[in-house]
Structure formats: structure tokens, C-alpha cells
Amino acid sequence: MTATHCARTVVSALLQLGVRHVVLCPGSRSAPLAFAWEQAARDGRVELHVRIDERAAGFLALGLAKASGRVVPIVTTSGTAVGNLLPAVMEAAHSGVPIMVLSADRPATMLHTGANQTTDQARLFERFTRGVAEISGGEGTPQAWAFQVSRLVATALGVRTRDPGPVQLNIAFAEPLVPTDGDWPEVTPTRVTPPVATPNVVRVPSRGTVALVGDCAPAVGDRAAGLAMWSEVPILSEPSGNARFGPAIRTYRLLLDTELAGKITRVLLFGHPTLSRPVSRLLARDDVEVIAVTGGARWVDPGVNVARVIDAVEIVPDGTGWDMEWIMAGLELGDRIDAELGDELSGLTVAAAVWQSLTSDDTLVIGSSNPIRDLDLAPVAETAPRAYANRGLAGIDGTLATAQGIALIHGPTTVLLGDLTFLHDVGSLLIGPLERAPDLRVVVVNDDGGSIFHLLEQGADEYAASFERIFGTPTRVRIGPLAEAYGWRHREVTDLATLRTLLAEPVSGREIVEIRVSRDDRRAQAARLIALGSSLT
């Protein structure tokens, strides 16, 4: 057996099990896999995406897997190359995304010898992976290798466990690392089907019930919205909950601090809600029954208060107009917010313009920190875009790379993020001339620093002397020349009317739209919006 034989077996099994995209980082020890994947790509069996930065590659694979629902492998060489995948693996673990780390390794006899680029990497991600396997090109059989591939693919998809997430296949290759023959092995991977189960359906009354939809896949958000919409239950959806359309309550997070919220007796929890403290307080209330509705093995319980975990729910409407109380209060508060914000450029008005420019045919990727929270107060329309965000751990890293993966699956995509999130992943702007580039419009709300910290405890006046250096962190980076260096079109917008006109144009090619805003008023602005909600009777 040779390295070439092993690599081709792995690639053949993965192709037969439905892999259609693979992300590859160049390296020597991973050469057998690189040659095999490149051959498969030339034969039209897979689309190959090459990136030189492993961290960007990991998040690119994350985006591809999020949008496609398929396993997406990331190929790396040995050593620190593998370690750079940790942020993406952690996010995939907490959001249930099926990526596969295909890490090339040195033979086991080279461990702990000080050999070049050799470390103990086989179980590097063990706290975050759903499954791990080790194979060697120097021992075993093609069918034994294919078995490990089959097991990991089923594990990554959660076929039997209902618990999808990242996996790692670590492969030890001995030289020669270049192709030694032209033959591809014939293997038959194991086909795994899901267990048959009867959904656990629970009936609940509509009065006092709200549907709280956190970050989740578009299909899950659609189901949650459809269920609540016809059952007289208020829909409280985060932007990446994919239920924020139609009768969804635009201003729900502000209303959760009013008397209306006191009437809530039951929360149907879908997805992963993490955006606001009013939501956290609601989920922790001892007078509220929290029911997690999920088709997976895991559930979210940030308030440590979930009473039941169920597969599905049936809501019994009672005709009391419970949902209309929320809808009318939400509309009134929305009008007050619009009057308060006016047409001045701010994070909130930019977010509203982006959201209002998109339809159900469009795709939006949202950065963490303030942009997704600003979208959470944007006006609600009859339809909404497919919305994605890395909310498993809510980090700012990898947002541009994730968006590229999503755009390569869905087509033209808009990204809304802040300047620090943009700069944190600026290396992902590098897309080689031999690669298929996505159609991506990146809207950067540039307030030169971390404006979200203005809204937290450390943004209080008594910490002003320390705030700017250790929390505000201004950078003074000029985004225009940076965009030009990477080959992206750059446009700077200075007023809302121009922004709306620009956003009405179809997304084509790669462009960065920069809007400079001030963060000096963010804390006071947030206080004024909270006061508007509190003033409702």
C-alpha cells in the first residue's frame, strides 16, 4: 500500500458519499490528497477550492457546509497548519455544521523525534469533534480505510445520532508523496440511513405563548414562522432565525422590558438565541415554561430553565387576539424608533437599509457584535432573505470566508459587518486567480473600533479614561487601498439615499461598500431606544 493508494481510496469514498466541495491548503505531506482531489476536480466530480490560509480555509468550508448541508472536507498538511483550523472547528461544533478535517500526518514513528512539522495532531480537536479516526497509508486495506470514511461522514451529518458537527480524519503518509501509479481503487463505502422514529408532538394553547427563534437554518426558521403565524402566537425572531418576516415582531427585544412581557407564560424555543439580555432574562424567568423544539439530539438552554425538549409542537389558537397585542405594540414602537433615528447615517439606519433591500430570493451573511443587533431592530417586511451568521460561538473571526462559502452555494450574497470583523478576516479577501470567485457585496459599517463595548458595562462614563485603548481599539485603517490591493471594488457611501440606490443594484463580482459612522453616541442612543419601549402603556 502507498500514500497515493490511501489518498485515492479516501477521496473515492467521500465522493460516493455525496461530497461535492472540498477546500485545500497547499502543503507537502498532504500532496497525495492534493493530487487525488485535483484529479477528481478535473474529472468534474467535485469542485475544488484552494486557499493559502488555513484559518480562512476552515471558515470557507464552514460556509459551504452551512449552505449545502453536505460534508465539506478541508485538507491540510501537518503541524501548525492543522492548528489553524481550530476556530472554524469550534464554531462548527457549537452550530452543528458537518465539516471534515482531512489532516495529513507523518508516520507515527516520527512523533516526538523533533522531525520537521511533526506534532501530536491526531486528536487535536477532540473536545470539539463528533468523531475522530486515524489511518495510515502504510497499513490497512482500502475497505478498512473506506469504513472509517463512512463512519465519519455519517457522524458529521448526524445520520444516526441527530447530532451533526465536525469530524477529523488524520492520515499518516510515508514517502513517496507523489502519484506512483494511475489506478484508483474500487471501494464500496457503507451507506447509513437514519433510524425510523415517531415525532414527539406536544399540544399547547396560544394564549401566553411566544415563539422565540434564535439562530438556525432557513428551513427551521420557515417552519417555526409557519407554525406560529397561523396559531395566533407572536413571533420573536433574531435576524439569523429566518423567521423575521410577515407578522414577526420587529421590536420584540424592547417589548420584553414592558408590561406586555409579563403576560408571557410559555416560550417555544427554536434555534440558538444569544443576542440580547432581555431574551436571556425571559428564558430564566421561573414563571415561564420554556419548551425547546428541536429535531436534533442537543438543545439550547441559556436560562437553564427548559422544562421539556420535544420534536414538534401543535399550537391551539383561542381567538383572544394575543398575537395582535404584540403586533400593535410592535408597530407603535417601530414608528417611534423611525422618528428617533431619522435619515442620519448610523449603524441602525444602515442595517435597516440593507435588510429592506433584500427579498426571499436573496442571501445575507451577518457579522457579530453590533451589526446583527442593529438588524434586530430593522423594519420587518412580508419576505426576508436567507440569513446566516456564525452564532455558535458568536466570534468575529472568519466572517468573510464563511460568506464566500455560502455565496459559492447560493449565488450573489450580501454581507453586513463592522470594521473590526472585516479587518479580523481581511486575509480572506485573497482569492487566487485560478479559483472561482463568489459574487459578494461586503457592507462595512466603519465606526473605527469596537462600538459594542459602548453598550456594555465597560462603556460607562467612569471607565472613559481607559475605554478607548483597551475596548474602543481604533485602527485608522484605510479600507479603500486595502480593497484595491486584493482586487476588490471599493465604494464609499456618505448618505442613506445613495446607499439605498447602491443596494438596489444586483450583486455582481466582489465589492466592498464602506459607510463611515460615529460611535460616540451609541450608548446614549441605546438608552433613548430603551426609554421609547418603556414609555409604551
Mean pLDDT over all positions: 95
CA-CA gap between termini: 76 Å
Classify the fold: give the CATH topology of the largest domain. Answer: Rossmann fold
Q: Give the name of the CATH architecture of the largest domain.
A: 3-Layer(aba) Sandwich
Number of strands: 19
Largest sheet entry = 6 strands, parallel
User: Runs with pLDDT <50, length 5+?
Assistant: none
Radius of gyration: 25 Å
Strand order of the largest sheet: 2-1-3-4-6-5
- Please identify the top-level CATH class of the largest domain: Alpha Beta
Characterize the overall form. globular
How would you concisely characterize the structure shown here?
With 537 residues, the protein is an alpha/beta fold.
Task: Considering the chains and any ligands shown, give keywords for the structure.
537 residues; Rossmann fold; 18% strand; 2-succinyl-5-enolpyruvyl-6-hydroxy-3-cyclohexene-1-carboxylate synthase
Descriptive account of the structure:
- The protein is an alpha/beta fold.
- It folds into three domains: 3-172, Thiamin diphosphate (ThDP)-binding fold, Pyr/PP domains (Rossmann fold); 201-329, Rossmann fold, CATH 3.40.50.1220; 342-532, Thiamin diphosphate (ThDP)-binding fold, Pyr/PP domains (Rossmann fold).
- 35% of the residues lie in helices and 18% in strands.
- Strands 2-1-3-4-6-5 form a six-stranded parallel sheet, with helices on both faces. Strands 15-14-16-17-19-18 form a six-stranded parallel sheet, sandwiched between helices. Strands 9-8-10-11-12 form a five-stranded parallel sheet, with helices on one face.
- Helix 1 crosses helix 6, helix 10 (322-341) packs antiparallel against helix 18 (522-534) and helix 11 (347-356) packs parallel to helix 17.
- Its EC number is 2.2.1.9.
- InterPro entries: MenaQ_synth_MenD, THDP-binding, Thiamin_PyroP_enz_TPP-bd_dom.
- It catalyses: isochorismate + 2-oxoglutarate + H(+) = 5-enolpyruvoyl-6-hydroxy-2-succinyl-cyclohex-3-ene-1-carboxylate + CO2.
- It is an enzyme of class 2 (transferase).
